[in-house]
Write a structure and sequence with these properties.
4-stranded mixed beta sheet, 34% helix, flat
Amino acid sequence: MRRDWDCGSKHGLSIDKESKLMREENMIYTVIWQDKNKELQATKFVGSIDKRKAWEDIGKSITAQQGLVLSMVTGDHPAYFASSFAADSA
């Protein structure tokens, strides 16, 4: 499982700037998606407060990585998958 919590930061955004963006016109989302190897991934995404626009933008980004978006949740949340626990018990 890969957890990429720096998608917003690739644009050089600090936590303070991300908070400001959320108040103005953007929202932070946690996106659950399946990669080309059919493994589940969780990614933080900074997108539009319009959930339809955000879904479309997230979909384009994930599709470019040959992935499939499964879920989008507002906010920055940890995501746990069965593979996380299987690796811990080894």
